[in-house]
């Protein structure tokens, strides 16, 4: 359906702390992305720019302000995909300001889908991305406080850290009907070094095809087991986005998967759902913006 543009973004399903800061960051990101669509730009450019703004807003767990792993370091994941089945991702990448930009470089400048670790950093440097320390005092304080409370060298499964996972994600459809998805994450707080979450895994944290596009957030290991984004988009071939989301979320909840999701189908219908205690989000469709939490 050409011309019916829309864009939605989420700020993670791990809680709703700092509500005003989250709303402000989401509104800015959505406004910038939607303006690209309004001017006739591609959904790929729109979701990337929106994701960059969220990565640069330290309240979110992506880019600058990402959570620290067990060793006190920041390792980030990101992915980007279009309904034409183009995909690029990075995993456990460090010392980069905007992992989503590197994910797009992987998609457009290489024959690969996913680059990880030190060699993802080398690739980013080769492509001109400068050194950047994404660690913030705020997230380092959270890390120190949580680590002191740990009963052992590593947390019991997900346990008390369930409110400290998060991701940012953006989905958009442009005037030409192209659907794009961008997802970026700093991972679960105090996770093991080298852990890769659902974000850079095609079909888990990010997926798009001719039926629609979805970005997920939550407990990455369970999202990977469920191939959550793929399941929702596949159902979009038979039903509206919201119904596909509700059906998939019910299955995920039954399986014990703590998660949230946003998406848009080929008819520009939006979904925004979660089974966690809260998920921040914002979208614009038909020129009208809605945000949670409201400012």
Walk me through this protein's architecture.
The structure is a single chain. The protein is an alpha+beta fold and 295 residues long. It has a single domain (6-292), classed as Glutamine Phosphoribosylpyrophosphate, subunit 1, domain 1, CATH 3.60.20.30. It contains 8 helices and 12 strands. The chain has helices at 19-38, 43-55, 99-109, 117-126, 137-148, 220-226, 228-235, 241-254; strands spanning 6-10, 76-82, 87-93, 114-116, 168-173, 179-185, 206-209, 212-218, 259-265, 270-274, 281-285, 288-292. The strands form 2 sheets. It has an 8-stranded mixed sheet with strand order 4-3-2-6-5-1-11-12. Strands 7-8-9-10 form a 4-stranded antiparallel sheet. Strand 11 and strand 12 (288-292) form a beta hairpin. Helix 1 (19-38) packs antiparallel against helix 2, helix 2 packs antiparallel against helix 3 (99-109) and helix 7 packs antiparallel against helix 8 (241-254). The chain starts with 5 loop residues before the first strand and ends with a strand. The model has no long low-confidence stretch (mean pLDDT 93).
